[in-house]
Amino acid sequence: LRMTEAGQSYYEQASRLVQEVDGLEQAVSRHNEAPRGRLRVSAPMTFGTMHLSAAIPRFLSAYPDVMLELELNDRTVDLVAEGYDVGIRIGVLPDSSLIATRVTMMEMATCCCPDYLRRKGRPLKPDDLRQHECLPYGHKRHVEWSFEVQGKRKLVAVNGRLCSNNGEILRDAACAGIGIAHLPTFIVGDAIKRGELLTILDEFRPPLAGVHVVYPGHRQASIAVRAFTDFVRSTFAAPPR
Questions:
Q1: What pLDDT is stored for residue 149 in this prediction?
Q2: Half-sphere exposure of 77 toward its Cβ, with a 13 Å CA cutoff?
Q3: What order do you get walking across the sheet with 181-184 strand by strand?
Q4: In sequence order, what are the residues at sequence separation of 6 or more whose Cβ sits closer than 8 angstroms to the Cβ of residue 7?
Q5: How far apart, in whole angstroms, are the C-alpha atoms of residue 149 and residue 152?
Q6: What torsion do the CA atoms of 110, 188, 107, 125 make, to the nearest 10 degrees?
Q7: What confidence score (pLDDT) does residue 29 get?
């Protein structure tokens, strides 16, 4: 036997309804009960390894009946289709049916090492980056970086010999003098503080973006999801430098 496409769709929607009813019953009849059960979480790779990993043990200590499955991945995960209870998203959120709670703000920094500036000179405006070796984030060597020029958003096409979907690799390459990086300060903040990287084009930084906890509507009543959302919000109330 094999389920039809219509049957599969019916099953998925019915399963979500059953979960929603279960969650509502938990919220009403066991409002004061401690969170319990399995919690599947999706989060970005670098934010997870650099910041979330240190907080997770405290969450598990506070909620000993919760079993946490944490998946780190920089792709945009379909929480509903892939069975996740909650996710962490960084940047501007696209329109969706997910419920979002902003937990902190993120700032971008354009930066490079002092040796690179000595060899290549300092860009004075965003368009100058076209003449420099840049370190694009993602799977393409040719990307656009966002800046604010005279109160308006400006996209500047940049390229370079190294691109990666991992911010830590690009940060280390910038520290080694390979090129200019355009990354969140939660990735490059420590290197900037130590003087290994210098920020450039500070007057053209784009507006702050948000770090959000998102979850499907049918998980809204889940005690574990609420506990995780509140924990992340309290942990990162002050933005990582």
A1: 92
A2: 25
A3: 181-184, 108-112, 198-200
A4: none
A5: 5
A6: -10
A7: 52
Residue in the block written with tokens 């040719």: 142
Q: How many residues does the chain have?
A: 241
Instruction: Please provide the DSSP assignment of the chain as one string.
Output: ----HHHHHHHHHHHHHHHHHHHHHHHHHTTTSPP-EEEEEEE-HHHIIIIIHHHHHHHHHH-TTEEEEEEE-SS---TTTTT-SEEEEESSPPS-S-EEEEEEEE-EEEEE-HHHHHHH----SGGGGGGS-B--BSS-SEEEEEEEETTEEEEEEEE-S--BS-HHHHHHHHHTTS-BEEEEHHHHHHHHHTTSSEEE-GGGPPPPEEEEEEE-GGGTT-HHHHHHHHHHHHHTSSPP-
* pLDDT tier at 147, thresholds 50, 70, 90: very high
- Predicted model pTM: 0.74
pLDDT digits (tens, 9 = 90+) for 202-221: 999 988 888 999 998 877 77
Q: Please give the C-alpha separations between residue 21 and each of 26, 40, 78, 201, 223, in angstroms, as whole numbers.
A: 9, 19, 22, 52, 13
Distance, CA of 232 to chain centre: 13
